[in-house]
Design goal:
mainly alpha
């Protein structure tokens, strides 16, 4: 079993499940597709990548290449969620409003006809606080996955080993 992968999937699932109460308040009902929608609080993308980075960092040390890759992936995904995807959602909102105006104009001028197409999805990206919320959930789940990986009697040895690895890495960098 690839524990890092399962940790990320658990974080994504948890973040998506935490969106349900908010959707219930908005719509008054639960729909299964709500579990797979993008946007909203917390960011499941952020939760997934941060849980991966946290787990890998604790497991392999902060100086490992695998942690560096996971941390860089986290930064890219979170930046994308707040930037490009959020702006794409804002553009989709504008396009939907333009289509509403176009429908009204064609109703006022009978020779012209316009059928309204399916609206574009507007909740694509995230606000910074939604990304931060997802990152906090991801960090907690990554830590929890790491802590529960070992039997209780080995946990102390694991933490001591992690601290030694981290201190060794720091001391070897300061000497150079």
């Amino acid at each position: 079993m690839n524990r890092a992968l399962w940790t990320s999937l658990a974080a994504i699932g948890t973040a998506q499940a935490l969106k349900i109460p908010d959707r219930l308040r908005q719509n008054g009902r639960f729909e299964w597709e709500d579990l797979f929608r993008t946007g909203g609080m917390p960011s499941s993308h952020s939760a997934g990548v941060v849980s991966l980075a946290t787990y890998v960092g604790l497991k392999n040390g902060a100086s490992s290449i695998s942690f560096s890759l996971a941390a860089l992936l986290s930064l890219i995904v979170m930046y994308d969620a707040m930037g490009i995807r959020r702006h794409a959602g804002m553009i989709a909102s504008e396009v939907n409003q333009l289509e509403d105006v176009l429908v009204k104009l064609t109703e006022q001028h009978p020779p012209h006809v316009h059928r309204k197409d399916k609206e574009l999805e507007e909740r694509l990206g995230h606000l910074p606080e939604e990304v931060l919320g997802g990152a906090a959930i991801g960090a907690a789940i990554g830590w929890l996955s790491y802590v529960t990986e070992f039997p209780r009697h080995r946990r102390r040895k694991v933490w001591i080993s992690f601290i030694r690895k981290s201190l060794y890495t720091l001391s070897s960098r300061t000497v150079q």
